[in-house]
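Good day; I would like, with your permission, to put a structural problem before you. The record follows directly beneath this note:
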Amino acid sequence: MRQLHPMTPPYRGFARGVSFGSLFFFLTLIGGDAIGLHGTGPAVIAGTIGILLGGGYEVAYYRRFGYELTADTFDIASGVISRRRREIPLRRIQNVDIERNVIQRILGVAELRLETAGGGQTEARLQYVGYDEAKRLQRDIRRQKQVVEEEHTDETADEPIDRPEREERVDADEEEELFELTPRELVLLSVLSFDAGFGFFFGVVLPTLFIFGAASPEGLVGLVTNLSGFALVALGLAALIVVGIAWIVSAGRTFARHYGFQLSRVGDELRYERGLLQRYDGSIPIDKVQTLTIHESLLKRQIGYATLGIETAGYSPGQAPSGGSEAAVPLATRGRVNRLANEIEPIGVVEFERPPKRARRRYAARYTIVIGIVTGILFAADALVGTPAAWYAPLVLLVLVPLAAHLKWTNRGYHADDEYFVARNGFWRRTTRFVPHYRIQTVVDTRTFIQRRWRLASVTADTAGSMSLVGQDATAVDYDENDAADLRELLARRLQERLHLRKEKRREREMRVGRERVVEEVSGPIRNDEDRTPSEPHDGPSDGESSEGDSDDTGDSNAANDRETADDPDPEEGATDPAVDRGHSDDDRPSR
């Protein structure tokens, strides 16, 4: 087995030693009097012992850790006190990511992370290996994994292809650059990536906690009742300054996170590289894609930009080990996003079905109730302590209720064709999720108490991705209960049809590979029409026999993808916005 990089013990040992040493030092300094240890001398000695223990543990960890990439598994042996050996099947590996911070780049080391189906938690970490070794493992794991999957696909063939031949074909895959974030797009992304929760915390929560913590209840009542107009303006300006600082910090984080973003395609994998201080180099297997998501905030929609995110069974955007969005495209024009989405999945043109009009009335009623509750709270506060602001001020927002309900209604919709289920939701931060039917795990029909009163229901297409854990799967929200039942049955039927079709295609491919191997052994390699000399006659397919074997190469590098094949979309069509709304009334439901 191979060992980790020689710089691992000093690098990990320093961090572990500082942690143990600080703990021992402060515990002895605080509790030493109870056992007769006075002064800083014993604490310094205890801290030194902690440093030695931490460093010694990391040396033992380095000597007891080993890894090996075999033909079918990635093996790891570890454990200082209790030994543990893991064999991770290559077919289960979803993502192989490389991470390096500034110090690690100086030392020439990197952390390799292996993600498997199941999301959330990293399956294995190598802390640390050389950067060249990490790239080699990333490349070799991809190659071995694809070979194993092809062997599994062709295991019923009469004469399976030899492993060296498969490896040679996989190594021949060339890297194709799909997207590179320009400096202008990086700056625009940083400006548009303000985290509202981040700003709310620094601009509202922290000042409120400070005021409540510094003043007594009587002082707070006096402060609220005696606020002048100038004081209110000053407080507003202070809040704006704090929010502005939070905006700058958020923009800086985004700039450092997506600096130098590049997306490329190698065979059946997408590869991305990004980061200024913390550098990330990861892979996304295309055949493991669960959901494609287009994110469009209100401001992005106004200037014609969008973000494309990819969710796999390993982890989803926002839940990756890097702590950020593993977006396929952090920011690009809507046309470029559509083209790249169609390169990954041939989605084509999407026509949305809107919810019934009574759903819009439900949204209006909801907003009206919220305004009424806020007004009631302000009225109660005015009656108890008295406030300088008018308690009835929120009632002015009632004039905006119809517009808000209409915007919410127009930005919801779903589309279901033979291959994909698409759901769109949200006005301020609109998301459009594309789910292949064969990726659906469960179809859920939910109806809350309020929805039942309005005869509405929501249909969710649950996948194996991690977004299902936080309730962010593709969902058609607030549709007529009968339409929702029909949609649920349609998705379940489409799932079975696509799975059956995929099995049939796999069986046909396996039979074709077996036939062509037999033909090659008898009469030599199969040649295409352009390989024949003019004197050679061309024998067309006989009656009842398909010519598919002459047109499809048995060495297709995408045979292991186990995905549906479809014609590539027209690039010009992908450059336009495919979303077309088609509303309907309650009495005029769309037929399926």
Q: What stands out?
A: Residues 316-325, 525-592 have pLDDT under 50 and may be disordered. The longest strand covers residues 289-297. The two ends are 59 Å apart (CA to CA). Residues 422 and 434 are 5 Å apart (CA to CA).
